[in-house]
Amino acid sequence: MNENFRITRATQDDAVQVARIHIAATRAAYRDIYTLEYLDGLSTEDRAYRWIEKDRGHLALGDPFSVFVAFDNDMMIGFADVGPTTKSGVAELYAIYLDPEYIAKGAGKVLLEACIDYAGRNGFKAMIATVLTKNSLARAFYERRGARALTETETLIETGGTKEKVISYLWDNLQQAD
């Protein structure tokens, strides 16, 4: 594995590969949280369509949304999705998913850095991410990367065939690029 990952901005042509990673990562990360029926029912075709859906899919919308993809040589191994929230000056890290073989290899770090840089260059002062409370791996990753848990945001949602708590994380004082 090459630890010098290449990060590029995704296009609609990347939808199927992004969907493939999204599903593999979801099945690995949430196998003890979501129902097996939900995880088995995930479809690459459906996910790919959601990424390019007119007026909704982040690969179709473009700025101020951006999806970054990570490559190890020529193989796509992860992606991260960033864009605006309803709060002025606050971006959201909507998703960051890696091929399970690439967890803890550095690709997540460079994808997160690409999102933080993008948000800062586009005038956002802060960035949030919402994560399942039970997702201890993601929570520890965010904390190691300077985010702080906003405990007051913890709330119950229904997803993946279960009811689970989510919590938001905040990176504030994003550096503005020159």
Overview of the structural elements:
This protein has 178 residues and is of the alpha+beta class. 32% of the residues lie in helices and 34% in strands. It contains six helices and seven strands, in the order βααααβββαβαββ. It has a seven-stranded mixed β-sheet with strand order 1-2-3-4-5-7-6. β2 (66-72) and β3 (75-84) form a beta hairpin. The longest helix is centred in the first third of the chain and has 15 residues, at 15-29. The relative contact order is 0.16.
Number of strands: 7
User: Structural class of the helices, strands and pairings?
Assistant: alpha+beta
Rounded radius of gyration (Å): 16 Å
Proportion of residues in helical segments: 25-40%
Task: Give the H and E element order.
Answer: EHHHHEEEHEHEE
Query: What average pLDDT do the residues reach?
Result: 93
Uncertain ranges: none
Major sheet size, sense and barrel closure = 7 strands, mixed
Beta-strand fraction estimate: 25-35%
Q: Which strand order spans the largest sheet, edge to edge or round the barrel?
A: 1-2-3-4-5-7-6
Helix tally equals 6
Q: Tell me, what's the shape?
A: globular
Distance between the termini: 33 Å
